Amino acid sequence: MRHIFKEGTNPNKPVLLLLHGTGGNENDLLPIADIIDSEASVLSVRGNVLENGMPRFFKRLAEGVFDEEDLIFRTNELNQFLDDAANKYQFDRHNIVVIGYSNGANIAASLLFHIQDTLKGAILHHPMVPRRGIQLPNLEGINIFIAAGVNDPICPQQESIELKELLESAGANVQDHWGNRGHQLTMSEIQTAKAWYEKIYS
């Protein structure tokens, strides 16, 4: 997978895994990672799927309707990439905190839904429920921050509420933050995510 790796100045900090939204690339979230933790190493990945020329992390059948077969395949592909990247760049595979936006947040949630111990924590901006009707792994000790919009036309409010409930039912510690700027990734939610992150990882 196309990606950028930047080694941080503090090897004890989590590696920040950056997963962009539809039409984005591996450069999009780098400034946000610098705000969240300027000392951490960063692994920023470009999605392997193209939709009308726009990079994504998995296919969809329509707006808000995921191709579940491709979602599962791409989730396993990303998990294998993280294993390979940890070996290549010599970082702790069990010390990854993801920052995902929109489509990137959805595949990050899919990692949590499908694969035990793949992430140490997650900052999910405007996520949806990746799959329903499945048994989640044990997520005890996993800290998750969800930023969502009460009037988000792409990610309805109920999606993020249900995602929080599902993650908590699997044992995760989840904090949510609600804005009113639709699907935008706002500085307000980034700063709130930073405060949450520093409370846990500093």
Name the features.
202 residues, alpha/beta, 5 helices
Structural commentary:
The structure is a single chain. This protein has 202 residues and is an alpha/beta fold. The protein is built from five helices and eleven strands; from the N terminus they run ββαβββββαβαββαβα. Strands 1-3-2-8-9-10-11 form a seven-stranded mixed β-sheet, with helices on both faces. The chain has a two-stranded antiparallel ribbon with strand order 4-5. β10, α4 and β11 form a beta-alpha-beta unit. α2 crosses α3 (103-114). The protein is globular, with a radius of gyration of 15 Å.
Give a count of the beta strands, DSSP E runs of length 2 or more: 11
What is the approximate shape? Answer: globular
Percent of residues in beta strands?
A: 15-25%
Q: Which series of helices and strands comes N to C?
A: EEHEEEEEHEHEEHEH
Helix fraction by DSSP (H/I, runs of at least 4): 25-40%
Number of helices: 5
In order across it, which strands form the biggest sheet? 1-3-2-8-9-10-11
Main sheet, how many strands, which sense, barrel?
7 strands, mixed
Give the structural class: alpha/beta
Rounded mean pLDDT is 96
Span from first to last CA? 30 Å
- Computed CA radius of gyration, to the nearest angstrom: 15 Å
Q: Can you tell me the residue ranges where pLDDT is under 50 for at least 5 consecutive residues?
A: none
